[in-house]
């Protein structure tokens, strides 16, 4: 009886020893798992920190590049503004020069036109001066013939009224032109022309016509001298240049 109890006691002790070993194994295993987890988390934190550091460095580098690019852009904008101002000044200068050249070219064209060196086309009028009808009662034939002073009156009035170019029977007049009377014909710059004398002028037709038709003006004076006076307005008149010297 006593022997059986001892055997039971030994079995109980054995059971307790197994529990201790199992507990020790679990403890060691738990410590290893905890250490491994801790080590893993530490490595993750380190990796995360390194990654974060790399991102921060990259972000800082990109920010520095962006700031440098902005500074470069500001410098380029200032330089562009200077260049634009320079271009504007050059354009103003060229515009003044172009205007001056245009005025010179325009003046040269006018001078060539007055000198009869270029063909002229435009609106104007045609004035015809013809000898008066023969009157046997008039002993002096010159009293109904067209003379150079009659032509002068018309030409001078047309120039005063703004005529740009004038021709007599198609022959252009210049500032050096001269007109002489030789019986029934007149001589323009050495070229003889018989009556009727057609005086063609380029200019504003209304202005030129009104100047000649003034009461007591050129037309009335010529009619009083028995000259047949006719006036015609034209929308397009062409005067050829003077050929040769």
TrEMBL record:
Q: Which UniProt keywords apply?
A: Coiled coil, Membrane, Transmembrane, Transmembrane helix
Pfam families attached to this UniProt entry: DUF881
Domain of life (superkingdom): Bacteria
Q: Which residues form a coiled coil?
A: 59-93
Concerning InterPro entries, the annotation shows: DUF881
Q: Which spans are transmembrane here? A: 20-39
- Family from the record: Belongs to the UPF0749 family.
Protein name as it appears in the record: DUF881 domain-containing protein
What organism is this sequence from? Bacillus xiapuensis
């Amino acid at each position: 009886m006593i022997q059986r109890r001892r055997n039971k006691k030994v079995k109980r002790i054995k059971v307790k020893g197994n529990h201790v070993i199992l507990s020790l194994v679990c403890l060691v295993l738990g410590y290893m798992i905890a250490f491994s987890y801790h080590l893993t988390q530490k490595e993750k934190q380190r990796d995360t920190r390194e990654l974060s550091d790399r991102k921060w460095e990259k972000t800082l580098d990109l920010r520095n590049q962006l700031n440098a690019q902005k500074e470069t852009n500001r410098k380029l904008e200032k330089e562009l503004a200077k260049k634009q101002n320079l271009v504007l000044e050059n354009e103003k200068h060229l515009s003044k020069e172009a205007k001056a050249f245009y005025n010179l070219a325009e003046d040269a064209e006018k001078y060539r036109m007055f000198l009869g060196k270029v063909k002229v086309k435009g609106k104007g009028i045609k004035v015809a001066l013809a000898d008066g009808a023969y009157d046997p009662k008039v002993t002096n034939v010159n009293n109904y013939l067209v003379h150079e002073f009659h032509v002068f009156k018309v030409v001078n009035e047309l120039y005063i009224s703004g005529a740009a170019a004038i021709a007599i029977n198609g022959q252009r007049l210049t500032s050096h032109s001269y007109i002489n009377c030789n019986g029934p014909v007149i001589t323009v710059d050495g070229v003889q022309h018989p009556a009727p004398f057609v005086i063609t002028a380029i200019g504003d037709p209304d202005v030129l016509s009104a100047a000649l038709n003034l009461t007591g003006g050129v037309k009335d004076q010529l009619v009083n001298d028995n000259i047949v006076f006719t006036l015609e307005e034209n929308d397009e008149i062409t005067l050829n240049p003077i050929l040769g010297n």
